[in-house]
């Protein structure tokens, strides 16, 4: 079974899977190996359509950012 989670706000549907994929692609452009991350937190603010992230790598280095 595949689960599909969608955030709905003001008539706009935003699939959570797409947010996760976009953040991981962003991290790859920063030369961060996603497979080496300890944690990845993604924060989506649907009222303004902004996505922020916080990742912690194997060396406990914190990587934060905002999707454009």
Features:
1 helix, three-stranded antiparallel beta sheet, 21% helix, 44% strand, alpha+beta, globular, 68 residues
How would you describe this structure to a colleague?
The strands form two sheets. Strands 3-4-5 form a three-stranded antiparallel beta sheet, with helices on one face. A two-stranded antiparallel ribbon has the order 1-2. The protein has one helix at residues 16-29, and strands at residues 6-9, 12-15, 37-45, 50-57, 62-66. The chain has one domain (6-66). With 68 residues, the chain is of the alpha+beta class. 21% of the residues lie in helices and 44% in strands. Strand 1 and strand 2 form a beta hairpin.
Set down the secondary structure blueprint.
Elements: E1 6-9, E2 12-15, H1 16-29, E3 37-45, E4 50-57, E5 62-66
Antiparallel strand pairs: 1-2, 3-4, 4-5
Give a brief rundown of this model.
The chain is built from one helix and five strands, in the order ββαβββ. It is of the alpha+beta class.
User: In one word, what is the shape?
Assistant: globular
Helix fraction by DSSP (H/I, runs of at least 4): 10-25%
- Give me the number of helical elements: 1
Number of domains: 1
Percent strand? 35-45%
The strands making up the biggest β-sheet line up spatially as 3-4-5
N- to C-terminal distance: 32 Å
Overall pLDDT score: 95
Number of strands: 5
Low-pLDDT parts are none
The assigned structural class equals alpha+beta
Oligomerization status of the protein chains: single chain
Order of helices and strands: EEHEEE
Q: Radius of gyration in whole Å, from Cα?
A: 13 Å
Main beta sheet strand tally, sense and closure: 3 strands, antiparallel
């Amino acid at each position: 079974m595949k689960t599909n989670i969608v955030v709905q706000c003001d008539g706009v549907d935003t699939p959570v899977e797409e947010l996760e994929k976009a953040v991981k692609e962003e991290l790859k452009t920063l030369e961060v190996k996603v497979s080496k991350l300890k944690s990845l937190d993604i924060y989506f603010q649907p009222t303004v359509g902004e996505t922020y992230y916080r990742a912690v790598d194997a060396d406990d280095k914190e990587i934060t950012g905002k999707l454009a």
